[in-house]
Design brief:
It contains four helices and twelve strands. By secondary structure, the protein is an alpha/beta fold. Strands 1, 2, 6, 7, 8, 9, 10, 11 and 12 form a nine-stranded mixed beta sheet that branches. It has a three-stranded mixed beta sheet with strand order 4-3-5, with no helix packed on it.
Length: 212
């Protein structure tokens, strides 16, 4: 693929955010975007929140405590977002990119695995549960919504965070796993470097180039 055949994407770093306004903004962006609108990738660290997927089951929320629970329309079950976790939202025109949802998920997982490899971390996938795992511990979660061939929501990668809230849920509806983050396996992992590496891998995997 030549450089000139790559599609442009706008990368936006939102910093630390509250989940609900970003969720509403994603929905509005997708609803209002035109067929020639440039794709966007949003990076953020959310303040503590549990988000429930569209078909999420209440029994997977064990005890939320003081952390808010927000219903969303992404796929998957309940997960936790908090500071020290990189959340990446992919607002992409899949028809224009020639991608199906399954292919997009595969490329997202490949991007995360490639980033982990740069930190000498071996990871694996599960056919029955999207995401990326180190041994039996989940380190990255995926959840998407597609409307009129345009995706939103995305992925979360645990970099250096308080993992305690994951004990208050069955993460992604799974009862046979634990949850981990990068610093438990590579002390040099830090958010600025991980952001840069994740963006680079996603651009390569999706055939995108960052807009100036």
């Amino acid at each position: 693929m030549s450089f000139y055949s790559l599609h442009q994407v706008k990368i936006v770093d939102l910093g630390e955010t509250v989940y609900e306004p970003v969720y509403a903004r994603m929905q509005e962006f997708t609803r209002l975007r035109s067929s020639n609108a440039i794709d966007e990738i949003w990076l953020t660290e959310h303040r503590p929140v549990f988000t429930q997927g569209q078909a999420g089951k209440a029994e997977h929320i064990l005890f939320p405590g003081s952390i808010p629970v927000v219903q969303s329309n992404r796929g998957g079950q309940v997960t936790y977002h908090g500071p020290g976790q990189l959340t990446v939202y992919l607002l992409l025109d899949l028809r224009r990119l020639g991608l199906g949802v399954r292919e997009l998920v595969s490329r997202m997982e490949a991007s995360i695995q490639a980033v982990l490899e740069q930190y000498n971390l071996s990871s694996r996938l599960r056919k029955d549960a999207p995401g990326v795992y180190i041994d039996n511990a989940k380190i990255a979660s995926l959840g998407l919504r597609v409307s009129k061939s345009c995706s939103y929501h995305g992925l979360s990668l645990n970099v250096d965070m308080d993992l305690t809230p994951f004990s208050q849920i069955n993460p992604c509806g799974l009862t046979d796993i634990t949850v981990t983050h990068m610093v438990d396996h590579h002390g040099g992992a830090n958010m600025p470097d991980v952001k840069e590496k994740v963006c680079a891998q996603l651009l390569g995997q999706l055939g995108l180039v960052a807009a100036p």
